[in-house]
Amino acid sequence: MKRRTFLSAVGSGLVTAAGTALPRTALAAGGGEPIKLGLLFSQSGTMANGESLLKDTALMTIDQINAKGGVLGRQLQGVVVDPASDWPMYAQLSKQLILRDKCAALFGCWTSVSRKSVLPVVEAQDSLLFYPLHFEGEEQSKNVVYLNSPPSSSVLPAVDYLMSAQGGEAKRFYMIGSDYVWPRTINKMLKGYLKTKNIPDSAWRERYVPFGQSNFQTIVREIKEFAAQPGGQAIVVMTVVGDSIPAMFKEAVNQGIRATDIPILGLDVVDSDLEGLDTKPLVGHLSCWCYFQNVDTPQNRQFKSDWKNYVSAHGLKHRPDMVIDPMVSTYLGINLWAQAVTKAKSTGTEPVRHALAGQSMIDPAGYKVSMDASSQYLWRGDMIGSINANQGFDILWKSKDIVKPVPFSPFIGKA
Amino acid sequence: MIHPRHFLLAIACFVLASIGFAQIACAATANRASAIVSFCASDGDKAAALAQIVALGVSADVPERAWSRRMIDAIRDGALVCTADGHALIQASPPLDASSLRPLGSSDTAASGASPYVPSIVMMRRLAVASAEIDMFAPQSETRAAAARQVDKFFALLDPAIVSRAIRHESDPQIAAALTVAMAKRGLTSEVKADRLAAVKAVAEVPSETAHTTLADFAAQESVKRDPELRQAVEHAIRGIDTSLAFGKAFSILFSGLSYAGVLLLTALGLSIVFGLMGVINLAHGEFIMIGAYSTYLVERFMQAQLPAFFDAYIFVAIPVAFVICAACGMLLEFLVIRFLYRRPLETLLATWAVSIALIKLVQLLFGSQNVEFVTPGFLNGGMQVSPGFFVTYNRVFAIALALLIFLATFSIVRFTKLGLLMRATTQLRDMARCLGVAAERVDRIAFGFGAGLAGLAGVVLTQIASVNPSMGTGFVVDSFMVVVLGGAGSLAGTVVSSLALGEINQFIEPFYGAVAAKVAVLLLIVLIIQKRPQGLFALKTRT
């Protein structure tokens, strides 16, 4: 008897726990059935920090489009699932979103490994995945829309900058990454690129740490040692992700590394990673994205105030005054999808894909972004940001115009 | 067209100058304005403009020095805004005019839509040098000492004239000595042999990787190779540096291992009571660590709002708070779930797993899924160069010390108190203990609460080392089980030995083969040991 009451108690606990993970539907009144969009973002696990922001940005964008009357006279509805930072789960849930929930398109994934996990599903079901992160490139699927830049238009310009006289003439490179496909490909490409710049193999070092690593003592000590060796100014190209970013920064600061000694180019660092940190000793470390929230354009002011209002109106736990590039990418993705659907007068994958080519809109970053007709990559502007004392980035450099995305790097084979 | 403000200034200067006053002040204002104009020129040489500002900063004039320092800070902080009319302002509340440092009216600020200047890495290096150069003339000796350390770091970029002037002005012999050493290092490039020998000696005095590189570069020069005396001196110096660096490296590896072991010990200690002594497979152990970390967060927030004067002490206040909160949670869990499941490991495993997921989701609902922000207490920031090549960070030292203290306290409680005796009796031979009148159920509850409280303490320490978010515990629970199983269930000493061994082995492998290989090696090692000794390293002899 006692045992049964206990089991039912545990059972009901489980149901409540699972309840938060079940699809939350945002039904709204409109003509006909709502069009469903699958939102594949983790709200738990090591990626929860970033991906939960994207989920709420997507819901906000959907609300905005609905407020303007929806698409094709129908309302949009976001179907939220939680893959819990578990890569195979992304594949499973994307299948569920396409087959059971009949979603017209999917928006989601942060890490490349999660995208690679969803890829066979969207290809088999011929659906569309809109992917909002900058990544390693080397991929082109007619079922994925790449909303952010491949390394040719983000990482290489930043490295070029650091190698220039203005950027401190970097001559030696310490690459530290989390151990998975994105950092490994980026570093492979970087090594190929450095070879074309006549940098000898002895001038770089490559290290990987397990996913979620938080102990960077040995790495930082090695960085100091590496930087002190002869051969010129050293920089760190950091491709660790998730919780490892603040851990790495903390250790670097504690061991006395400043941007003036050894600049760290953190390729996956966004404002939200700086949230828990005192950034005064971090001032000057760099990152490169297509958007930084300090960019001063009317569209950006609008986007930021929309986000602020959305966060307070829905009582969300996010910081209301923080917008990061992948959020803007998600916003652009949903809007571009809506434009394409309107043009195609259909939500079918094939007509939407055709209509997407050449779609353009004004990015909050101030550029007029445009969808490449052949590669399904988005042409965007490029920026280098420098960490400031207020847990944000100042814009150090930005491209004059949108940059052509090159999905397959010519430098990969050279390494 | 002359700007009216300039015009008035000129008239004022003229009038005052005719009285013979304030000539210097007016000249200074002109200097300031010209430095600002050249800094703000879009195609101007910013380095030259900075030199102009520094020249004012090292002058004898006190207000000019203060202005120069303020400007350097403003540029570094990205607060300097160049406006269209050749002026500049410093962003603050209220905004200041960059030249006079007087607050500006709102109309002046509104007119400038320009964004602030963002310094590049090269500029930041120059700014660091500039502030060091200015600080060498500061009245406070601490500021001068800090500047001298900076001078040593950037010695290649410094203006030697300014440093030699600072040495002449310096009253504190220690600071003067530090500056002299820094200057001596420049002697490597000198033509005079005595200077070069002195420089080699000065560089070798503070062994470091950088010193090693400097000397190796120096030894490679043709002129040095030709001179036997110089060559011998350099080679001797390099050998000396190599020896001390080798020691430093060995110490570093030991220390990293120790600090990793400290974290393992902290997280495993609670589990060694709950799993080791009581035999409960508690998969929610990591969540108690997480609750401990969030309790610390609440304490930190409370102290920041209510007792800002004692803010740095929050970490110590959090220790009892986290212990009590986690112990209470643990006792509640024992009362609601665990006590029905003793001796049924499979069900315990499933139930505690469910509890772990429920706790993660609950904290996510209450606090959100993002990392929570901790302000590190001042005394835990940074670190110390113990010896050449051996740098310790205070947060790691703190973790090791606290791990040791908590272990000693736990050990004494289990070993020497009545509660510990009852705990051991109950877990070793439950029926006999009950026959002798021990309230076994109560002891179980207290022991479980004690274990949970210890996990909470681990959470307190981890706030200074790892990121704090609802799912932080999942990573630690695996490591904790590894430590307890390897050490031998029920043996506290085993827990210490196994965490030390795992920590040191891991950190010994990492520098050579990387963190991934270290993890693989440690896991394989555990598999091997468990195969040979399923009971763990230190088996407890019981009669069950």
UniProtKB/TrEMBL annotation, chain A:
Regions annotated as coiled coil: none
Signal peptide start-end: none
InterPro entries: ABC_urea-bd_UrtA (IPR017777), Peripla_BP_I (IPR028082)
This protein's name: Branched-chain amino acid ABC transporter substrate-binding protein
Organism of provenance: Caballeronia glathei
